[in-house]
Amino acid sequence: MTLTLADLCDDAALLSFETQLHLAEVIGDRRWDVDLAAGRFVFGGGTGEHTEDLVCARVHLLGSAAPGPRSWLWSWATSQGWSDDVTDLARWLRGFGQQQGVRELVEPEVGFADVPGADDPLVAGAVLMDAAKAAAGRWAGYSGPVGGGTRAAFLLEHPSFVLPAPEGVRVVRVLSEGLMAAPLLTDHRRAVAAYAAARPLASRWSPDGTEVELSLPGAVVTVRFDELGRVGGIASTLG
After folding, report:
1. Which phi and psi (to 5°) does residue 61 adopt?
2. Are the C-beta atoms of 171 and 234 separated by less than 8 Å?
3. The pTM is what?
4. Is 180 exposed, middle or buried (0-12, 13-18, 19+ CB in 10 A)?
5. What is the pLDDT of residue 67?
6. How far apart are CA 54 and CA 41, in angstroms?
7. Which of 123, 143, 161 represents a domain boundary (last residue)?
């Protein structure tokens, strides 16, 4: 069974959103700096509680989205000659795309017109980064401007980026806000099921698929779907 770009983005939607919330809390107002030749990505120069440099354990350059050609270019396809240390994940994604039939992970350059809903570098990069997260199972991502309107997208590794155990109030927020924030979303049920499996949350679906009950320590969250399969309501019992 093959996958599509939309499938991967559905699978990523909620866990990607929760991880980005957590990442923002961890890095605070630190600035970012990257030295790809050295394979070094640092968040530093912050204030308040976020003053110490946070040096990532690994940095993976996925690619960049540029307004001129209106396209995304995978890192392995550039003429920059980046080392395998920063492009190996993007190369792995190419192999994954070949195996699963995901054309957008295989072609060196992907036009914005071929990425649903993407009309600028920020959105195009977000869509392809979410697809990469779901395929690779690595969830902390960062997109930053690199000049001329171009944005580079990275997946980053650091122990502090790993999500804590799920908590009821947070899960409700993720379910309530995450689907609206997803750069590409086609199947709400798939997105909720993927999130429940990844966290993991115990899930009990109704026979007709119109409702799912998610259980975690101290909370039960019920998600209802409307006749079009969209999330139509969220109820929770906390404490």
Report:
1. -80, 115
2. no
3. 0.95
4. exposed
5. 97
6. 9
7. 161
Q: Verify that 190 and 95 share a domain, yes or no.
A: no
- Cα–Cα distance measured from residue 8 to residue 13, given in angstroms and rounded to the nearest whole number: 9
**Strand-pair category, 150-157 with 202-205:** unpaired
- 190 is written with which tokens? 């798939």
Average pLDDT (52-75) is: 96
- Which of helix, strand or coil describes residue 77? helix
Banded model confidence at residue 125, pLDDT cuts 50, 70, 90 = very high
Query: Are residues 143 and 85 located together in one domain of the fold?
Result: yes
Kindly state whether residues 82 and 30 are assigned to the same domain.
yes
Measured distance CA(49)–CA(226) in Å, rounded: 43
* Residue 178 lies in domain: 168-238
Number of residues in the chain: 239
The answer on 182 and 143 residing in a single domain is no
Going by the DSSP 8-state scheme, the letter that residue 203 receives in this structure is E
pLDDT digits (tens, 9 = 90+) for 87-109: 999 999 999 999 999 999 999 99
Q: Tell me which DSSP letter residue 166 carries.
A: P
Query: Does pLDDT of 1 surpass 70?
Result: no
